[in-house]
Amino acid sequence: MRQLLVENQQAGIEKTRAKWRAGEIVRTRSGVTVDCACGCGRAVYRSPSQLKSKSGCYFYSRSCAIRYRWSDVPSIARKLIAEEWWGGRARQRWKGRWGGRSAGHLGGRPRVSVTEEQKNEIVRLRALGWGRRAIARRVLVGEHAVRLTLAELDGT
């Protein structure tokens, strides 16, 4: 019984495929084909229910949408901050991110300078087999300063 059911289904599928190939079945769409808003040149089909975008932008893929949104970053940041879509901490955080992007490494802590006494002590303790953390605690400098000093003295 099951075998007969499967055979009938297969026959029905084959008939439908034959009609499709012959052009007897034509699939009609009621939507519109629009160009991708990011400018990649791809066309996107949108049904009438999908043609309700507030921005009027339609994208081929998620990566196209991201590319479009981040194509002009400074103007987006100005718009978001000026229109005060964000308040308080969020605006402060994003202003810092955008400012840091254009300004490079401004401010921050100055580089630690290690005196000659400290360099000698670092070398002596390293010769005794001490680790960087232990040396840093003993000499009262950061672990990073110890690593830089050792690298400088080793010539690497």
Fold and architecture overview:
- This protein has 156 residues and is mainly alpha-helical.
- The chain folds into three domains: 31-71, no CATH class; 72-104, no CATH class; 116-154.
- 56% of the residues lie in helices and 5% in strands.
- It is built from seven helices and two strands, in the order H-E-E-H-H-H-H-H-H.
- The protein has helices at 2-22, 62-69, 73-82, 88-103, 116-127, 132-139, 143-154, and strands at residues 32-35, 43-46.
- Strands 1-2 form a two-stranded antiparallel ribbon.
- Strand 1 (32-35) and strand 2 (43-46) form a beta hairpin.
- Helix 5 runs antiparallel to helix 6.
- The model has no long low-confidence stretch (mean pLDDT 76).
Topology readout:
Blueprint: H1 2-22, E1 32-35, E2 43-46, H2 62-69, H3 73-82, H4 88-103, H5 116-127, H6 132-139, H7 143-154
Helix pairs in contact: 5-6, 6-7
Summed up, what is this model?
This protein is mostly helical.
Pattern of helices and strands = HEEHHHHHH
In round numbers, the mean pLDDT is 76
- Approximately what portion of the residues adopt beta-strand conformation? 5-15%
In DSSP terms (H or I, runs of 4 or more residues), the helix count works out at: 7
- Main β-sheet description: 2 strands, antiparallel
Decide which structural class fits the backbone: mainly alpha
Number of domains: 3
Q: Could you name the ranges where pLDDT drops below 50 across 5 or more consecutive residues?
A: none
- The shape, in one word, is elongated
DSSP helix fraction: 55-70%
How many beta-strand elements? 2
The Rg value, from CA coordinates, equals 33 Å
Spatial arrangement of strands, main beta sheet: 1-2
End-to-end C-alpha gap: 80 Å
